Amino acid sequence: MTSRLGSPEKWDRAGWVFLLIFAATDFVSISAAQMAAAGLVICWMGRWFSSGQKPDFSALKWPIALFAVMSAVSALASYDVMESVRDSKDLFHFFIFFAAYDYLSRHPERIITAVKVAVGGGAVAAVHGLGQAVVRGVEINNRISGFQSIYMTFAGLLMLGAVSALAVALFGRQGKSAGWLYAATALMTAAIAVSLTRNAMVGLFVGAFLLLALRSPWAGASAPIVAAIAIALAPSHIQERVLSVANTQNETNKERLYLWSAGIRIARDHPFFGVGQNSFPLVYPKYRHPDVKEPNISHLHNNVIEIAAERGGAGLLAWLSIWAVALWKTVSAWRRMGAGHIRAAAAMGMSTIAAFLVAGMFEYNFGAAVMQMLIYFFVAASLAAEKRSQTAPIGA
Asked: Per-residue pLDDT for 396 more than 70?
């Protein structure tokens, strides 16, 4: 079928190119990734209008719609309406999810290819970061950030890349090609370690532990032992950083507790609509603990508390429902499928979501645009596999 808008097939071919460019560049350049994402969304809509076929918006359409509505309401009721409205532009990143899901659900044989391209981008970013570590050394006050502006975003992206690479290597029937996926996982893990970013370390451990436990109970049981050996063999500054996670006297940990306490009180005092996106700094001085070392801070270093404070209880429930539905769908796909690319994508979905949410208990990683875009891409790929699993034979 061809119309004045062009054929659906041409839009599809162009969309695939933009999807691969996005997957490769999100680790490297936010500008390139956003331009590629815009091209992907335009191609998705072009195919939609040229074919006359309504796309499948997936089971996440209603949780996403509810979260978008509640975010808009919170922005309009904000302490700083214009700032909150500007900050709401990140809601457009959901179009990346819809466009990628629609394409990959129609071409499930390309899911793992797209994920591998993303893994390649992550490996390049990791090598660049490790190069920075060679030049700078591993220093808490001068941490590596790869191609990103801040080390936490860099490490968070690599966390998702490493977990997705491990999922495909373990479950994707890759044969000899699994070797480079394990190598990419090792590179990204090493870069996370020398970045000294604890939330990404914890998220990576949880994601990897889940994958190994899915592989076999014995593999899952060995994960803490392997992690303990790795910590014992690591350089002293990395050891100290990892072990500081459980140190209640650590200054950063105390700051986090003071900050979370303030955020919970803000959410309690503004239970319906919150204070508005990016308006937390306006009210924080009223709730700030007198012993904090950093009096001016832009976010709460916790996804749940941040969203509750900024978008209210309904906004938080809508946000949580997105991940709950996504996990339910990927678990369903995992249970239906035998070995193969569909099961690998389902495992990737479960593990990347788990890593993202756990890391987000210690950092507001949902607030980073590149993190949002990448997790939407991985969730889209896993839910496209879930759709395919409903009709695919076991082992597909």
From this structure: no
